[in-house]
């Protein structure tokens, strides 16, 4: 009778730590690759030029916090792209006259009468998620089924995500506003713009995580990832810097 040698045991035991080591090294590499790929995909969504909406909509909503958002939205309203305009994220102390004078009058003469007839102010929204909630309420009250969404190009992916999650039955037509600083230099060459894009990407990932968990029945308050931020650059003290 012969006995089987146990020569393979040391080799097997030595291979196990190496396998665990490879797994430990691979996990962060895969994570970094996923983050990098996601960042590239995020950048691919950012427009570098402003393109007029392809069609009209029932209403227009603009999210405050970035350069020339409100004035661009007012121009769309004046051109007949929507029946009414919601300015979401207005500072509680601001009035329609304040906003008209500070944001609109230089680029759109006669804006005060347009405000009086066709503009609604939302003073309660303090984040993109609450912008979406207030926009949903506003659209439902008026029976709107399509909206032109106006916000800065870097903020548009997260705004569309939150709006489409809150209002899956409403057609969204994005109108991305491109700020002057974004036009003047590549985003990766300007320190402030680079930090803005990175922070927006982090908030976009947090929003995707929250929305995904909400779809599974877990409504987590991840708005701590969305502190009030500035714009490129902040120019309108009359409106809230919420996005």
Say how many strands there are: 5
Straight-line distance between termini: 80 Å
Strand percentage: 5-15%
Query: In CATH, what is the class of the largest domain?
Result: Alpha Beta
- What's the number of helices? 8
* Tally of structural domains: 2
> Which residue ranges are poorly predicted, with pLDDT under 50 across at least 5 consecutive positions?
227-242
Describe the sheet with the most strands.
Answer: 5 strands, parallel
The residue fraction in helices comes out at 40-55%
- Determine the mean pLDDT: 80
Oligomer: single chain
What is the helix/strand order? Answer: HEHEHHEHEHEHH
Structural class based on helices, strands and sheet pairing:
alpha/beta
Radius of gyration: 24 Å
CATH topology group of the largest domain:
Rossmann fold
Major sheet: arrangement of strands: 3-2-1-4-5
CATH architecture assignment name of the largest domain: 3-Layer(aba) Sandwich
Gross geometry: elongated
């Amino acid at each position: 009778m012969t006995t089987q040698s146990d020569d393979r045991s040391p080799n097997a035991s030595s291979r196990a730590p190496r396998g665990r080591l490879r797994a430990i090294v691979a996990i962060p590499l895969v994570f970094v690759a996923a983050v990098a790929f996601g960042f590239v995909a995020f950048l691919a969504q950012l427009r570098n030029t402003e393109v007029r909406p392809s069609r009209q909509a029932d209403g227009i909503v603009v999210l405050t916090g970035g350069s020339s958002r409100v004035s661009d939205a007012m121009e769309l309203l004046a051109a007949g792209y929507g029946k009414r305009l919601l300015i979401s994220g207005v500072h509680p102390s601001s009035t329609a006259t304040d906003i008209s004078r500070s944001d609109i009058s230089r680029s759109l003469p006669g804006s005060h009468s347009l405000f009086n007839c066709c503009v609604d102010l939302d003073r309660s929204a303090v984040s993109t998620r609450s912008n979406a909630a207030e926009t949903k309420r506003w659209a439902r009250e008026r029976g709107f089924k399509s909206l032109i969404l106006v916000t800065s190009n870097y903020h548009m992916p997260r705004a569309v995500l939150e709006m489409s999650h809150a209002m899956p039955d409403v057609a969204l037509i994005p109108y991305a506003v491109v700020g002057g600083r974004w036009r003047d230099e590549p985003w990766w060459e300007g320190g402030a713009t680079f930090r803005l894009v990175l922070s927006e990407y982090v908030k976009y990932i947090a929003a995707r995580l929250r929305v995904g968990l909400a779809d599974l029945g877990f409504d987590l308050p991840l708005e701590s990832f969305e502190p009030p931020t500035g714009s490129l650059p902040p120019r309108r003290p009359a409106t809230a810097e919420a996005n």
